[in-house]
Specification:
This protein is mainly alpha-helical and 336 residues long. The protein has 14 helices and no strands. Mean pLDDT is 68; it is low at 9-18, 23-33, 35-40 and 97-101. This is EF-hand domain-containing protein.
């Protein structure tokens, strides 16, 4: 038979004067071990409603480095590599179909005739050879635009106008044009524009005639009986009998003085005939005339007309030495 249980000092103390549970080494181990059974008497913190309430500390804001922030925003990270290892730039993207369609539509809406009218043939003849960079006698679209800008001004033509003129010069879709093609296209376009203008003028004149013709026809078809009779005017003598008209005194007639009657002018021939030619010749010294004749000959022809002859006599013999009739009588006597 087993003997009575042996009491440890702890259990003995409890047995004597304490009501606390007896904690043996086995009991202590059992009390401190976590409960694995759902039927355990101890609360389990694995269940959410059994967890003690704890205040959560706020999370501090995230501080990113500049490199990380640039990567998040999509910006390129500054490279620390050598210039030879830097990423090359992206390749050029070809224009979309919408951009090409818009350019073609803008070129199709240009008045080609008005653009050709601003281009002078003489200017183009000198500028065409200068713009031909490769010396092939043809200009592509870029060389053609540079030629127009250099010869006629930077802002004279838009890109759509240059493209429309270039397309008019090469309707078959060629990539370059010659000077002959340009001049031929200009003459063709200007001729077509002139024909269209004349046709539009004839059309406008026809429309005006159609609007005017009914009015003229209606006016012609109006019988004379339907026209209002002309107003009957009173005779002039009855105007003085009407009391509502004030009496007017007759206006005085302005009389201009008659020009004075002048005696008829004496005929030049009569005065010449009355001159004593012998007396005039007697006053002319031959030695004096010999010296003055050469000086009075203004044209060097060896002869004097009537003006030169009169000037010679007045210079040699005095300003008032002879009258015009005497000079003319002597001149007529010298050349009958």
């Amino acid at each position: 038979a087993a003997g009575p249980p042996q009491l440890t000092p702890v259990s003995a103390a409890v047995a004597v004067g304490s009501s606390a549970p007896i904690l043996t080494p086995v009991n202590v181990a059992v009390a401190t071990a976590p409960a694995t059974s759902p039927c355990s008497s101890h609360p389990s913190y694995d269940e959410p409603h059994m967890r003690p309430h704890m205040s959560r500390a706020q999370t501090p804001p995230l501080v990113m480095s500049p490199e990380l922030a640039a990567q998040v925003r999509g910006a390129p990270i500054p490279s620390t590599l050598s210039p030879a290892m830097v990423t090359p730039p992206p390749m050029a993207v070809a224009p979309s179909e919408g951009t090409v369609a818009a350019a073609v539509m803008a070129a199709s809406s240009v008045d080609v005739a008005s653009v050709f009218a601003k281009i002078d043939d003489a200017t183009i003849l000198g500028a065409f050879s200068d713009a031909d960079a490769d010396g092939g006698g043809e200009l592509d679209i870029e060389e053609f635009g540079e030629m127009l800008s250099s010869s006629l001004g930077e802002d004279t033509f838009t890109d759509a106008e240059v493209l429309s003129v270039f397309d008019a010069c090469c309707p078959d879709g060629a990539e370059a044009i010659t000077l002959n093609q340009f001049l031929t296209a200009k003459r063709r376009v200007m001729k077509q524009a002139t024909a269209l203008l004349k046709a539009q003028m004839r059309k406008d004149a026809s429309a005006i005639q159609q609007r005017v013709s009914p009015l003229e026809a209606a006016h012609v078809r109006t019988p004379p009986a339907m026209l209002p009779p002309p107003p009957v005017l009173p005779p002039p003598e009855s105007a003085a009998k009407r009391p509502f008209l004030p009496e007017q005194s007759p206006s005085p007639v302005l009389s201009l003085p008659s020009p004075p009657v002048l005696p008829p002018p004496e005929s030049v021939l009569a005065r010449v005939a009355a001159v004593d030619v012998a007396a005039v010749f007697a006053r002319i010294d031959e030695a004096t005339i010999l010296r003055a004749f050469a000086d009075a000959e203004a044209d060097g022809g060896g002869g004097l007309d009537v003006d030169e002859f009169g000037s010679m006599l007045r210079v040699v013999l005095g300003l008032n030495a002879f009258t015009d009739a005497e000079v003319l009588s002597v001149f007529d006597a010298c050349c009958p």
